[in-house]
Design a protein that fits this description.
The complex is a heterodimer of chains A (379) and B (262). Chain A has 379 residues and is an alpha+beta fold. Chain A folds into 3 domains: 109 residues, Acyl-CoA dehydrogenase/oxidase, N-terminal domain (Butyryl-Coa Dehydrogenase, subunit A, domain 1, Orthogonal Bundle), CATH 1.10.540; 109 residues, Butyryl-CoA Dehydrogenase, subunit A, domain 2 (Beta Barrel), CATH 2.40.110; 147 residues, Butyryl-CoA Dehydrogenase, subunit A, domain 3 (Up-down Bundle), CATH 1.20.140. Helices cover 53% and strands 15% of the residues of chain A. Chain A starts with 6 loop residues before the first helix and ends with a helix. The mean pLDDT of chain A is 97. With 262 residues, chain B is α/β, with parallel strands linked by helices. Chain B has 6 helices and 11 strands. A 9-stranded mixed β-sheet of chain B has the order 9-8-7-10-6-1-4-5-11, with helices on both faces. In chain B, helix 2 packs across helix 5 and helix 3 crosses helix 4. The relative contact order of chain B is 0.18. The chains are: A alpha+beta (379), B alpha/beta (262). Bound molecules: flavin-adenine dinucleotide (FAD). Flavin-adenine dinucleotide binds next to strand 1, strand 3 and helix 10 of chain A.
Chain lengths: 379, 262
């Protein structure tokens, strides 16, 4: 077993990091404060090939594998977890089309994302259905020549700026997960109402909104797969996207560790740098262990996806462990900064606020454990 | 137009430098290499010219080890067409480097219409190679260039001189131009660019291929040392006006007696 990245993969990471250090880190604080949408940075990142990492070469994408997509995501999240949420949501939205769409749909909906800068939203969660995604209430009604969509969505990333919405709903709530279906809705359609931007604790540079569908007409040919295929498409999407979300937690955690290491060498108390105090050293050691263990789990989950092996359990280990570790590491980073860590003058309080979301979205840490327990107990 | 860009690979600015045991060089095994930042302006300028002048080619040349070909790969990922590497693990002096670059340019089979480089390498800081190279090729050279405008065959160059003033040069025909910060904003290598770079030709030459031998050495490096560690700065507390007055005379005194700067 060789844990080394290929020279090309190292280069991807290095060049992405250069972009992140010059273009994202210096302004992350400002965007966090204003809540402004970082559209220009998003577009620049797209121009450099850092966005829509899942699109294969055959459709005009870069043809990255899952591991490479994770390396890029980790690096972007190192710069700002909040901005990275916007970036990652594009992939999350395009994946169902790549997984469940036919050739015509892929050409129609995916190719434009390779030709110009476009934004997408993944719309699964509803006001009353988050973790219990199979219980979603948005309805798709067959109207002969089109589907009629009615219902509400909640917490939809990029919603205010999206060109395209990938929407989950049900053709019959009685059917539970067997009724879940997935279709593509284009922006500006009649009856699609986009809510106000949520005022959030962290990820403030990401755009999160509710949506209302009021008799929205969607062409028949926009349904991905057959009616009722939505659940399977969603599950396959998660197998691919969980390593990505987990890698964003690794990026945030690595940043917190780097900040803490640097600060601990500069800050002097009791006549020596605080890094010379053993209590601080123990914290730093624990942080380093958790970052590397998270990264290894992510890489394993990603490599399994690339080798077409079922990775449901490992991807959930990675998501739960990396997100929980990121929360612990960013909290410890604030501790190492002491009072200064609690101030917005320093970068770590933002990391701590941003980390929290990683334990919530794309399956909470509790839901990951439900998945894991099921996998372990049924083995 | 045949545009050549000389690039050097230097230790990342964040690298911790340690001299080798015998002091003849620095430890290179654990260094992370990057393209010399001033050379990025040269590569960018070449690519800007190429964009405006169809049929132009950008060839990057470098002298150094093959351990890591970061600088050449980065230049090609940014958009350069072809690369030549004169391979050596020795720490060459400026004269040998210039001679090797000249040899590589000649071996490329293309006659240079323009040669670009950074104004200096941030590791050895000699600021000599572009000028020696120009001399060897019998070409004019302009260094510390912050403005570049091409109009047909005429190139107008702005050069920074002390005090922030600018000198303006007009050149025609092949010239060696050494670039400074401020000339342009170097582009990032895109990830598709990195993938494409892998398929671009990189020719490796030896020192003897380009006619450089030990006899060319003008400078021998014998003792690399780290600069002495800076003593920690002094802090003066002056929380109120009364204390401030005392602190001022204390600082003035120390500047006279200890720092000896006034
Ligand atoms: C900023 C942000 C961006 C988001 N972006 C998107 C997006 O782009 N697209 C999208 O579709 N969704 C998005 N989400 C939604 C996100 O995925 C959900 O918030 C998440 O799945 C949790 O759902 P919920 O908020 O309804 O919490 P609930 O499901 O109500 O959970 C509340 C608590 O109960 C726990 N819990 C629930 N069920 C169980 C159980 N069976 N056993 C044990 N504990 C349980 C949970 O772990 C949690 O702690 C986003 C959310 C946020 C906050």
């Amino acid at each position: 077993m060789d844990f080394n990245l290929s020279p090309e993969q190292k280069e991807f990471k290095e060049h992405a990091l250069k972009f992140v250090k010059n273009e994202i880190i210096p302004v992350a604080q400002k965007f966090d404060e204003s809540g402004e949408y970082p559209r220009e940075i998003f577009q620049k990142a797209w121009e450099l090939g850092l966005i829509n990492t899942s699109i294969p070469e055959s459709l005009g994408g870069n043809g990255f594998n899952n591991l490479e997509a994770c390396l890029i995501t980790e690096t972007l999240a190192y710069g700002c977890m909040g901005m990275n949420s916007n970036f990652m949501a594009n992939d999350l939205a395009l994946l169902p089309i790549l997984i469940g769409g036919n050739e015509e749909q892929k050409k129609k909906f995916i190719t434009p994302f390779t030709e110009s800068f476009k934004i997408a939203s993944f719309c699964l969660t509803e006001p009353n259905n988050g973790s219990d995604a199979a219980g979603i209430k948005t309805t798709f009604t067959d109207k002969g020549d089109h589907w009629e969509v009615n219902g509400d969505k909640m917490w939809i990333t990029n919603a205010g700026y999206a060109d395209l919405f990938v929407v989950y709903g049900t053709i019959d709530p009685e059917l539970k997960h067997k009724g879940i279906s997935c279709l593509v809705m284009e922006k500006g359609v009649e009856g699609l109402e986009i809510g106000k931007k949520e005022d959030k604790m962290g990820h403030r540079a990401s755009d999160t909104r509710g949506l209302k569908f009021n008799k929205v007409k969607v062409p028949k040919e926009n349904m991905l797969g057959n009616p009722g295929d939505g659940w399977l498409i969603a599950m396959k999407t998660l197998d691919h996207s969980r390593p990505l979300v987990a890698s964003s937690a690794v990026g945030g955690a690595q940043r917190a560790l780097d900040c803490a290491v640097e600060y601990s060498k500069e800050r002097t108390q009791f006549g020596k740098p605080i890094s010379a105090h053993q209590a601080i050293q123990m914290m730093i050691a624990d942080m380093a262990i958790k970052v590397e263990a998270s990264r290894l789990l992510v890489h394993k989950a990603a490599c399994m996806a690339d080798n077409k092996q079922r990775n449901t359990d490992i991807a959930s280990y990675a998501k739960a462990f990396a997100a929980d570790s990121c929360m612990e590491i960013t909290t410890d980073a604030v501790q190492i900064f002491g009072g200064y860590g609690y101030s917005k003058e320093y970068p770590v309080e933002k990391l701590m606020r941003d980390a929290k979301l990683l334990q919530i979205y794309e399956g909470t840490s509790q839901i990951q454990r439900l998945v894991i327990a099921r996998e372990v107990l049924n083995k | 137009m045949n545009i050549f860009v000389c690039v050097k690979q230097v230790p990342d600015t964040e690298t911790k430098i340690t001299p080798t045991g015998d002091g003849s060089f620095i430890e290179t095994s654990s260094i992370k290499w990057i393209m010399n930042p001033y050379d990025e302006f040269a590569v960018e300028q070449a690519l800007l010219i190429k964009a405006d002048n169809a049929e132009s080619t950008v060839t990057v040349v470098r002298v150094g080890s093959t351990q890591d070909t970061e600088a050449l790969r980065t230049a090609m990922a940014m958009g350069a067409d072809e690369a030549f590497l004169v391979e050596t693990t020795e720490n060459l002096d400026s004269y040998m480097t210039a001679k090797a670059l000249k040899g590589a340019i000649e071996k490329s089979g293309k006659t240079p219409d323009l040669i670009l480089s950074g104004k200096q390498a941030i590791d050895s800081d000699a600021l000599q190679v572009p000028q020696i190279l120009a001399q060897m090729l019998d070409l004019p050279s302009v260094s510390v260039v912050v403005g570049f405008e091409k109009d047909g065959d005429k190139i107008t160059l702005k050069r920074e001189v002390e005090g922030g003033a600018l000198e303006v040069y007009e050149v025609t025909g092949p010239t060696v131009v050494a670039c400074n910060k401020g000339l342009n904003t170097p582009r990032y290598a895109s990830l598709p660019g990195i993938m494409k770079a892998k398929k671009k030709p990189l020719t490796t030459l030896s020192l003897s291929d380009v006619g450089v031998s030990d006899g060319d050495r003008k400078l021998k490096f014998s003792n690399f040392q780290l600069p002495p560690e800076k003593p920690p700065g002094k802090k003066f507390d002056a929380m109120d006006e009364a204390a401030a007055a005392g602190v001022v005379s204390e600082v003035v005194g120390l500047l006279r007696t200890e720092a000896k700067v006034i």
